[in-house]
């Protein structure tokens, strides 16, 4: 089936018959409430074909050999190709990397923040919060009440709390209630959480409700406990540019990860995963926690350790580190797929609350609050042409060639 754009600049495309019939968007084929397909694709005749068609100003109208009639808007057909896709559905906000080799202001000078009440009670406030996390990887929420209840209320506005073997919403002090170094007062190097899940936790939140000095503390000495953030995706970019062979090792060598310290718990991913996961050729998720890493395959160990050493040097470079103090009333929320976090050792007792939120739920909230509903639906239903290059050049040429 051939179609062309009905204006002064013709664009010729050849669409497979079965594909057009399967993607009819009429009310009998697609439930208008759920946007789900209403028919069994595989009950259609394999040789279904148009018996009659016409071109209107807005759509390609087709009458099919199975007696069905469909209408395919030109804008929708054009959206299947790169330029038209962006025009019809828009695109997500760009990632803003920070740290080493990134020009402009430092992250300290442009720290993303939003007010608690604004984020909790105003759609535009939630849009700003999620947009900051999407673009910079994290955001501070200022002026929160100093309670776990207030913290949890805000997080549930973003998405459901993710339950793990640690529970759901957490509220803890360094008492080793769980067998994890997070439940101590020891320093923690930059890492991502839940590397041992097949799909690691998406967002993570921390709110320091209090930090009490030990009874014998010198009031003139700092208590420690500064927090650390590192842009893992930017570190991956640096590694790729400076040491492409090392980058290739960390994206291809798959490692075991585990959580085995608590009685009755022996968690590991369904399969091994590399440190750097890519979408196409772009890094999109970092899985890094040396404490939770299993044994490197002996046949790949030499090259992996060499690559990991280069990675660690980049991660620990001072220009990639953002240090700050978590205080009551200031909630930190960050993307655990991108941002590595850590802390310095501390004295006394800190009470921290927070939670994980699944990544898909975060992305949903980001798009719902930042874009028009119909554009979101279109975005969700269609693969971006940039993300799905043709597997077969002959097929691509057949579809895109002119008359």
UniProtKB/TrEMBL annotation:
The keyword ATP-binding does not apply. Residues 13-78 form the Gamma-butyrobetaine hydroxylase-like N-terminal domain. Pathway: Amine and polyamine biosynthesis; carnitine biosynthesis. GO terms for molecular function: iron ion binding; trimethyllysine dioxygenase activity. Residues 108-356 form the TauD/TfdA-like domain. Its EC number is 1.14.11.8. SUPFAM superfamilies: Clavaminate synthase-like (SSF51197). Keywords: Carnitine biosynthesis, Dioxygenase, Iron, Metal-binding, Oxidoreductase. Gene3D superfamilies: 3.30.2020.30, Clavaminate synthase-like. It is an enzyme of class 1 (oxidoreductase). It holds the Pfam family GBBH-like_N. It catalyses: N(6),N(6),N(6)-trimethyl-L-lysine + 2-oxoglutarate + O2 = (3S)-3-hydroxy-N(6),N(6),N(6)-trimethyl-L-lysine + succinate + CO2. One of its GO terms (biological process) is carnitine biosynthetic process. GO terms for cellular component: mitochondrion. Its cofactor is L-ascorbate; Fe(2+). It comes from the Eukaryota. PANTHER family: GAMMA-BUTYROBETAINE HYDROXYLASE-RELATED (PTHR10696), TRIMETHYLLYSINE DIOXYGENASE, MITOCHONDRIAL (PTHR10696:SF51). Converts trimethyllysine (TML) into hydroxytrimethyllysine (HTML). NCBIfam families: carnitine_TMLD. Belongs to the gamma-BBH/TMLD family. This is Trimethyllysine dioxygenase. The lineage of its organism: Eukaryota, Fungi, Dikarya, Ascomycota, Pezizomycotina.
């Amino acid at each position: 089936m051939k179609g062309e754009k009905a204006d002064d600049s013709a664009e010729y495309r050849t669409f497979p018959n079965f594909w057009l019939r399967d993607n009819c968007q009429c009310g009998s084929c697609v439930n208008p409430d759920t946007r789900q397909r209403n028919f069994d694709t595989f009950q259609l005749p394999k040789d279904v074909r148009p018996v009659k068609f016409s071109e209107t100003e807005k759509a390609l109208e087709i009458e099919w050999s199975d007696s069905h009639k469909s209408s395919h808007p030109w804008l929708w057909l054009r959206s299947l190709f790169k330029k038209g896709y962006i025009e019809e559905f828009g695109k997500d906000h760009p990632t803003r990397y920070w740290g080493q080799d990134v020009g402009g202001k430092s992250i300290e000078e442009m720290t993303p923040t939003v007010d608690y009440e604004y984020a909790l009670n105003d759609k535009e406030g939630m849009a700003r919060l999620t947009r900051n996390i999407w673009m910079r990887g994290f955001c501070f929420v200022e002026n929160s009440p100093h309670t776990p209840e207030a913290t949890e209320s805000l997080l549930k506005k973003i998405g459901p709390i993710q339950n793990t073997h640690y529970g759901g919403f957490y509220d803890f002090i360094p008492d080793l209630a769980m067998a994890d170094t997070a439940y101590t007062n020891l320093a923690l190097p930059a890492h991502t959480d839940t590397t041992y899940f097949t799909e690691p936790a998406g967002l993570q939140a921390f709110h320091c409700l209090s930090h009490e000095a030990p009874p014998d503390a010198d009031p003139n000495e700092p208590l420690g406990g500064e927090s650390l953030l590192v842009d893992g995706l930017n570190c991956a970019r640096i590694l790729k540019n400076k040491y492409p062979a090392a980058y290739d090792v960390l994206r291809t060598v798959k490692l075991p990860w585990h959580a085995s310290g608590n009685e009755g718990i022996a968690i590991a991913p369904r399969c091994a995963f590399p440190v750097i996961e890519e979408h196409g050729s772009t890094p999109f998720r970092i899985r890094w926690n040396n404490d939770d890493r299993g044994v490197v395959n002996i046949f790949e160990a030499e090259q992996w350790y060499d690559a990991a050493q280069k990675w660690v040097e980049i991660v620990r470079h001072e220009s990639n580190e953002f240090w700050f103090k978590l205080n009551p009333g200031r909630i930190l929320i960050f993307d655990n797929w991108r941002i590595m976090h850590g802390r310095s050792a501390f004295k006394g007792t800190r009470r921290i609350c927070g939670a994980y939120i699944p990544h898909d739920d975060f992305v949903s909230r980001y798009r719902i609050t930042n874009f028009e509903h119909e554009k979101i639906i279109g975005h969700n239903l269609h693969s971006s042409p940039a993300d799905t290059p043709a597997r077969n050049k002959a097929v691509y040429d057949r579809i895109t060639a002119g008359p």
